[in-house]
Amino acid sequence: AEIAIHTEKAKKISNMLTGVFFEDINYAADGGLYGELIQNRDFEYSLHDKKGSDEKWNASMAWNGDFKIVKENPIHVNNPNYAIISKGSISNFGFDGIALKANDKYNFSVFAKGTKAVVRLKLASGETLAEAKFTPSTSWKKFDLILKVSKTVNDAHLEISTDGETAVDMVSLFPQKIFKNRKNGLRLDLAETIADMHPKFVRFPGGCVAHGDGLHNIYRWKNTIGPLESRIPMRNIWNYHQSMGLGYFEYFQFCEDLGAEAVPVLAAGVPCQNSSDGGSGQQFGIPIEEMDDYVQDVLDLIEYANGSVNTVWGKERAEAGHPKPFNLKYIGIGNEDLISDVFEERYKMIVKAVQQKYPEIIVIGTVGPFFEGTDYNEGWRIADELKLPIVDEHYYQSPGWFINNQNFYDSYDRAKSKVYLGEYASWGNKFYNALAEALYLTGVERNGDVVTMASYAPLLAREKHTQWNPDLIYFTGDEVKPTVNYFVQQLYGQNPGNHYVESTLRLSDNNDEVRKRVAVSVVSDEASGDLIIKLVNALPVAVTPAISLDHLAPTKNVTYTVLSGNPELTTARPVTQQLSVATALSKELPPYAFVVMRIKTK
Ligand code: AHR
Question: Which GO BP annotation is one of this protein's (predicted)?
Answer without folding.
Answer: L-arabinose metabolic process
